Amino acid sequence: MTVQEGSRVSAGVTFAARLYFDNITHTFGNGSATLRGISLAAEPGEVLCLLGPSGSGKTTLLRIAAGIEAQTTGRVLLNDKEIAGPSVFLPPEQRSIGLVFQDFALFPHLTILDNVRFGLTALSREEAKREAMIALSRVGLDTYAGAYPHILSGGEQQRVALARAIAPRPAVLLMDEPFSGLDSRLKDAVRAETLDILRRSRATAIVVTHDAEEAMRMGDRIALLKDGRLKQVGRAEELYQKPADLFVAGFFSELNVFETRVQAGSAETPVGRVAAPGFADGQKVTVAVRMSGFDVGEAEGEMQARVLSRRYLGVVELLDLAVPGADTPVRARVRCGALSSQARDIFLSLRRSDVLVFETRAENA
Ligand code: ATP
User: Fold this and answer.
1) How high is the pLDDT of residue 6?
2) Are 115 and 148 in contact (CB under 8 A)?
3) Fewest Cβ atoms closer than 10 Å to its Cβ: which of 21, 42, 58, 96?
4) Residue 363's pLDDT is what?
5) pLDDT of residue 7
6) Which residues of 20-33 are buried (b: 16+ CB within 10 A; e: fewer)?
7) Which residues of the chain have pLDDT under 50?
């Protein structure tokens, strides 16, 4: 089913708020720290994506914002007002925060309208119905108000869950892996819909995901976590183009990594010599080359390589290449058609914008 643009209403707008995590640490009973000094703000009306590998602490931070979990130290502020800290702890229902989880959790025995009305206990029955209908119109499902959840597709059920979360007009909406239960084609559509609804409702949103592309598609800014620490926060292009370290770079693109030393401002790698400005002579560096960073051809070129295997993906193909001096195959992602089907000995050239040079640290090695 498609949603008509005109069926949406523009009422039900919330006042966007700023949510600030002030030096949050958290330790569960087992003693090891899950969050280690997180200071981070979600600015009014922005979509902030919390990105990180499994176990990095994303869900814990979201649960602390919601008031489901109490942090060990630090404070949570909503518009400069402390909602959780040493002296205050507001329960979830007093925080003006909405939640959407990955499993939607709709009640199967309640109508769609009653599912959305569920959280509106402070209002009279009639007011609650009106607000619930506004929220359902906002997600384009008001015509299904009297139906039961099982008749809806997964994507539509997710939109009902979103309507339920925005119906009380929360100042901040927290979403934990909201699209992970959807198949990949539906995911794109529901993600775009959700973003549109978030923009129209003007709520500040924090979206948890472990998928870098999803974070890039959704987030005005991305906060990348690792082992309970904030690695880098910024716009997608900042994290992609100027990653703070190899971990951040590797989260956004697949890399070929070479360890080498700087000589006279550049670093020699099996795939060519690259500029290493700002590094001292003799310094150990880690050179990362994105898989997309190679141009390939069959005529004489800069560097020789032999095709070990190739995998056709439609628009691009993935190549495993043997390159003199490289201990492991170099992996390249090239446009389909760049090489003939019988290509074996080929030539590579490096695209400098896809080369990143980092100081070698124990955690990179
Ligand atoms: P995922 O993407 O897998 O959900 P995440 O980044 O959201 O991961 P969290 O769920 O916040 O990570 O978990 C962070 C760490 O805290 C993990 O090591 C996890 O085992 C631990 N943890 C989470 N909840 C609890 C709990 N209730 N008791 C003890 N340890 C917990």
Assistant:
1) 35
2) no
3) 96
4) 62
5) 36
6) bbbebebeeeeeee
7) 1-13, 365
Q: At what angle do helices 125-138 and 184-201 cross, to 10 degrees?
A: 120
Give residue 252's pLDDT.
Answer: 95
The CATH number fitting domain 19-241, selected from 3.40.190.10, 3.30.70.380, 3.40.50.300, 1.10.3720.10: 3.40.50.300
Q: Please report the pLDDT score of residue 267 as a whole number.
A: 96
How far from 154 is each of 119, 159, 164, CA to CA, in Å? Answer: 21, 9, 15
Question: What pLDDT shows up at residue 14?
Answer: 58
**φ, ψ dihedrals at 205, nearest 5°:** -130, 140
CA of 241 to the centre of ligand 1 (A): 29
Q: Closest ligand 1 atom, CA of 208?
A: 7
Report CA(195)–ligand 1 centroid distance (Å): 26
Where helices occur in 139-286 by DSSP H, the ranges are 154-166, 184-201, 212-218, 236-241, 246-252
Position in ligand 1 atom list of the atom nearest CA 35: 14
pTM, two decimals, is: 0.88
Question: What's the gap in Å between 28 CA and the centre of ligand 1?
Answer: 9
